[in-house]
Amino acid sequence: MSQDNLVGRTVAGYKLLAHVGEGGTATVYRAEHPDRGSAAIKILRPRMAQDPVAVKRFLREAEFGARINHEFIIRTYDYGEAEGVYYLALEWAAGEPLASFLTAAGRLAAPLAARIIEQLGNALAVAHKAGIIHRDLKPANIMYDPETQTARLLDFGIARDAEDNPADRLTRAGFFVGTLQYVAPEALSGELVGEQADVYSLATIAYHLLTGVLPFPGKSPRELFQQLLTQSPVPLNEAVKGLKFSPAIEAAVMTGLERDLGRRWKTVGEFADAFCRAASVDAPAKKSGFLSSIFRRGTE
């Protein structure tokens, strides 16, 4: 099937204008709706639409997104089956994936990194309160608008409900879900994970924002897998030669990367608060009112 073969068609009232991306299970289009205006439409691939588990997972992603309303989470408009396809309609967000921005910009100053982490932390706190564990936090699943310095979370494709009955899980026991570079060590066994797994992933993102590298140097999946299970992450102040951060920033990040759940931050709010407070001390000009101003859109 050609990736562009649906361009020009209308699905559930959304006119598909252009192909903008694709993943393993779905193709994404830019679309226009007579009432909502611009939107992003995910269409489940035909071969996946024949798999009941894939369909259930796709619709669950949509349902999870629809349960959460927050300024730092991409809004879900509607979803379902129409015109012979399964679709998910999302708000069209300004900006680009955070991963793309970081490739061009390199590592970020601590105040900007804190702004992003604070926004994501608040978005995740709302998701967790709704009983949703994201499980796949990474820069590719975050939209970032440099003009307003706004980060927004998306892609609940492998999220789970904290109240799920283990017997109803969509992933086989013994197989982990997530992205290896950002996944929490406890997820590698394939067992159900909780909020602290998202804490670990958010701390990994913070580490990456500050240094431009990741906490483990493994080059292959096998090497990285073993390091996650058996080694400690490279301390923040040893990540890049000559690049140093305050003890408070390093402590906040490394506590978020603790393998021992008893020593890791318990909630994303705890981690984001500690990280932002440490960053505000490192940036005296922004110290006054930093934590409240971090939500304001645009630069100062």
Task: Give an overview of the whole structure.
This protein has 300 residues and is α+β, with helices and mostly antiparallel strands. It has two domains: 10-91, Phosphorylase Kinase, domain 1; 96-293, Orthogonal Bundle (Transferase(Phosphotransferase), domain 1), CATH 1.10.510. The protein is 34% helix and 18% strand. It has nine helices and eleven strands. It has helices at 46-49, 52-66, 98-105, 110-129, 195-211, 221-230, 247-256, 268-282, 290-293; strands at residues 10-11, 14-22, 26-33, 37-44, 76-82, 85-91, 96-97, 132-133, 142-145, 150-153, 160-161. The strands form three sheets. Strands 1-2-3-4-6-5 form a six-stranded antiparallel beta sheet. Strand 2 and strand 3 form a beta hairpin. Helix 4 packs antiparallel against helix 8. The chain is globular and about 55 Å long. Mean pLDDT is 85; it is low at 165-176 and 284-300.
Supply the helix-strand structural class.
alpha+beta
The CATH class of the largest domain turns out to be: Mainly Alpha
In angstroms, what is the radius of gyration? Answer: 20 Å
Shape: globular
CATH domain topology of the largest domain: Transferase(Phosphotransferase), domain 1
CATH architecture of the largest domain: Orthogonal Bundle
The H/E string reads EEEEHHEEEHHEEEEHHHHH
Low-confidence stretches: 165-176, 284-300
* Spatial strand arrangement across the major sheet: 1-2-3-4-6-5
Name the helicity range: 25-40%
Query: CATH homologous superfamily name of the largest domain?
Result: Transferase(Phosphotransferase) domain 1
The total of beta strands comes to 11
Strand composition percent: 15-25%
Largest sheet: 6 strands, antiparallel
Number of helices: 9
Distance between the termini: 48 Å
Overall mean pLDDT score? 85
Indicate how many domains the architecture comprises.
Answer: 2
